[in-house]
Design goal:
Order of helices and strands: HEEHEEE
Helix content: 25-40%
Number of strands: 5
Number of domains: 1
Low-confidence stretches: none
Strand order of the largest sheet: 3-4-5
Oligomer: single chain
Mean pLDDT: 84
Length: 163
């Protein structure tokens, strides 16, 4: 008769050193939810940044047009000939610049801007016109970070040149 090897008793069995992992089914759900939330937040930030950029460009375009109108706010009587026989010289008056810029803004369709304000319309040197406009920008998706929007500002300078 063949003798079978004796089975070790439980206290004599060698210990298994590998860790016991529990069932990991469903553990990817928090990871997918986290990455989904991160992707959604990134999409919202990119959409808000694009909207802010485009609104700022539109406001600058309006300010640029207003500055051009302000730079041409002179009468022909204000143009003087240069003593040296060079190009004609003009002198802008601050009141004329402001008046023409206000007329331009009143006649231009600018309903796309919320809270549009003419901050400044002046001539710093009598030869160029500087116009500063501001408006309120609201993000495309209302967030807790900017519930009331932000005031954005655009400044443009134009100069009438003869010659």
């Amino acid at each position: 008769m063949t003798q079978l090897p004796e089975t070790p008793r439980p206290e004599q069995q060698p210990r298994d050193r590998t860790p016991r992992w529990r069932d990991d089914e469903g553990s990817t759900l928090p990871l997918v939810a986290g990455f989904g939330a991160l992707a959604l937040a990134l999409i919202l930030v990119v959409a808000a940044a694009s909207s802010l950029y485009l609104e700022r460009k539109q406001l600058f375009t309006l300010a640029d047009g207003a500055a051009l109108v302000g730079a041409e706010a002179f009468s022909l009587g204000a143009v003087e000939a240069d003593a040296g026989g060079g190009a004609p010289v003009l002198r802008l008056e601050p009141d004329d610049v402001h008046r023409d810029v206000v007329r331009f803004l009143a006649s231009t369709p600018n309903s796309g801007f919320e809270g549009l304000v003419l901050e400044e319309a002046m001539t710093p040197d009598g030869r160029s016109a500087t116009v500063t406009l501001s408006a309120i920008w609201r993000p495309p998706v209302v967030t807790v970070f900017f519930p009331e929007g932000l005031r954005i500002e655009a400044t443009a300078t134009a100069r009438a040149v003869f010659g």
